[in-house]
Write a structure and sequence with these properties.
600 residues; alpha/beta; eight-stranded parallel barrel; 21 helices; 40% helix; 16% strand; elongated; binds pyridoxal-5'-phosphate
């Protein structure tokens, strides 16, 4: 990793640039993100804040449609392309409003996997844009889809098993033919995905019909007079596909199933739904990319393979649906959060309290510190780390006291700082000091904002918003403010993070956590009763930017109510037990934190 640009050229997607030491949006006036943060601070937003950038959402949607259009032209592909956004990836209303507005010109639709999502989809979707319904369905879920159709929506119910088809046939008897939605069948492929989310495809996957079941389904549809409604086959082989090979196999397999079904009498089957899975580049290291293919490559393969199969088998080239989610929205949001504390910042020379008589190893450490220079820096650094190990052992055995131990910590810290400043061979010095990290306490909750880091070990690009014209000197581990020891992003030598040595009494230092717009918000956990962060929608235009919408994080009161506490009673109970002065202080705190408007 080039330590001054944090691998931006690998994961940045041309969305961001570094100029004048600041991280900036690569659009319009190239606004620095820190300027937006300062602006928000002046409006009272001091804690962590999720920034949404609709222009980046637009960019991804446009990129998707253009890549397919280009491939379609190149291969003279006659099928149409349609796309839907899978709501499970992000269903927050502020997000969805922007998405559906941008999607209008493309007839970009929505995918729903539950009754609640379907209600959201029906309410937000333009009638000419498709709705796809996936997931396990009970009768009410199916009836909801029929009602959407009756109301003029272009809706397809994908069946995940034969039982669902029986339910659909039953419900269909109560509706007019033109009120019956299109029916899709999710197929169980023998090819499966790769990566940590690979359980959605393949023979042992949770979803889909085997080829025997597909044949039975077609028979059932014929018997019920619903063959005309069977329009689509569907698969989804998993998210964040690292490699294109499983996808190509899935396209071939589904293309052949499609053609065979038409030959068996599925005379209105005309679409293949490729699901999602297109990966986002999260890696900060060009040598270890998280994906090995491009969107254009996928689009080309889809057109080429489906055209070849259709021509060979003498059927019409199918319409192609995409349910890409992560690719569409991961980059549109970043979390910005201030560093609250550096855990060794207070180790200045003044803190050192050497005794008249010090243990010999401490005297040596002191000597190393004073005589360290450009030439001997690396050697002295090694020596001091050795001494530290010995001194800590001596402490455990009861030979030195706490004051000695404290002096050890301070001296080693001072030596590291001095070595990093003076060493000729900085890389070597870095490598050595990787063992000793500065701990940055960040005002955010990992469980709220990066749940996939905690749950799946998914890495996210992290970088400071400022100081980017200076070389970062400290190997950093990040601590969140929950009191869970898992709330930490440990320093890893595989994926090292270096940050700047800042004096927080003199300046503020913000970190950005990027590519958090997909899945993270919806998987968030209120661990320790921390609420969602503040949220701001930022419109970028030619002459700058505008904070279009600002949503403050939930108040303490709302969080407690969310967890079914009688929030008002709780507060009253505590307040009433306090004397007058304490009560006043307590109420001031609750009011400042949005607990109660007023209590009597
Ligand atoms: C989750 C899911 C998607 C979206 O996958 P991404 O990897 O985010 O593109 C698409 N289709 C179905 C059926 C899904 O379950």
């Amino acid at each position: 990793m080039n330590s001054t640009n944090y691998g931006l050229e690998v994961w940045g997607n041309n969305d961001l640039v570094i100029e004048g030491g600041k991280l900036r949006l690569n659009a319009g006036k190239k606004t620095a993100i820190i300027d937006i943060v300062e602006d928000l601070r002046s409006q009272g937003i001091t804690g962590p804040c999720l920034l949404r950038f609709p222009h980046l959402l637009k960019k991804q949607i446009k990129t998707l449609y253009e890549a397919v259009e280009k491939a379609g032209k190149e291969y003279q592909y006659s099928g149409q392309f349609k796309a839907v956004f899978p709501l499970k990836v992000n269903q927050y209303p502020t997000f969805l409003e922007e998405l559906t507005k941008i999607g209008k010109t493309y007839n970009y639709g929505l995918e729903a996997g539950s009754k609640a999502e379907l209600i959201v989809a029906i309410a937000h979707n333009k009638k000419t844009s498709p709705i796809i319904v996936n997931g396990f369905k009970d009768k009410d879920f199916i009836v909801l889809a029929f009602l959407a159709k009756k109301n003029g929506h272009d809706i397809t119910i994908t069946i995940e098993g034969l039982g669902e088809l029986n339910k659909i046939i039953e419900v269909a008897q109560r509706f007019d033919t033109k009120e019956i939605p299109n029916i899709g069948i999710r197929i169980r492929l023998h090819t499966s995905g790769v990566g940590i989310w690979a359980k959605s495809g393949g023979m042992d996957s949770k979803f889909g019909l085997t080829s025997t079941e597909v044949v039975q389904a077609l028979k059932k549809l014929k018997n019920a007079g619903l063959t005309e409604k069977f329009t689509m086959i569907h698969f989804h082989i998993g998210s964040q596909l690292a490699d294109i090979t499983p996808l190509k196999k899935a396209i071939r397999e589904s293309g052949n199933i499609y053609a065979e079904l038409i030959k068996m009498g599925a005379n209105n089957l005309h679409a293949i739904n490729l699901g999602g899975g297109f990966a986002v580049e999260y890696s900060t290291n060009a040598d270890k990319p998280s994906k090995t293919y491009s969107l254009q490559e996928v689009a080309n393969d889809v057109c080429f393979l489906l055209k070849t199969i259709s021509n060979d088998k003498g059927v019409k080239e199918p319409d192609v649906y995409s349910e890409s989610g992560r690719f569409i929205c991961a980059n549109h949001a970043c979390l910005v959060a201030p560093v609250l504390e550096l855990f060794s910042n207070e180790y200045t020379q003044e803190a050192l309290e050497l005794k008249e008589q010090n243990p010999p190893l401490i005297e040596e450490l002191h000597e190393l510190y004073q005589s360290l220079n450009e030439k001997n820096a690396i050697e002295y650094l090694h020596d001091s780390l050795d001494h530290m190990e010995s001194l800590l052992t001596l402490f455990d055995l009861g030979y030195i006291d706490l004051k000695d131990r404290s002096n050890t910590e301070i001296l080693v810290h001072l030596i590291i700082k001095k070595a990093l400043k003076t060493a000729r061979n900085l890389t070597k010095a870095h490598a050595i000091t990787q063992r000793i990290q500065e701990r940055y306490l960040i005002n955010f909750s990992l469980f709220q904002s990066l749940p996939d880091y905690w749950g799946l070990g998914q890495e996210f690009p992290i970088m400071p918003l400022t100081h980017l014209d200076k070389k970062p000197s400290r190997s950093a581990s990040l601590w969140d403010i929950t009191c869970d020891s898992d709330g930490e992003i440990k320093y890893s030598s595989q994926n090292p993070l270096f940050l700047h040595d800042v004096d927080l009494t003199q300046e503020s230092y913000y970190l950005g956590f990027f590519l958090v717009g997909a899945y993270q918000e919806v998987l968030a956990m209120a661990h320790n009763l921390f609420s969602r962060p503040n949220e701001a929608i930022i419109d970028i235009h030619q002459s700058g930017y505008k904070i279009k919408k600002l949503i403050s994080s939930d108040s303490l009161r709302e969080i407690l109510i969310d967890f079914d506490y009688e929030a008002d009673l709780l507060i009253k109970k505590i307040a009433n037990e306090l004397d007058d002065e304490a009560k006043k202080m307590f109420i001031a705190i609750t009011e400042r934190n949005g607990y109660l408007k007023s209590i009597s």
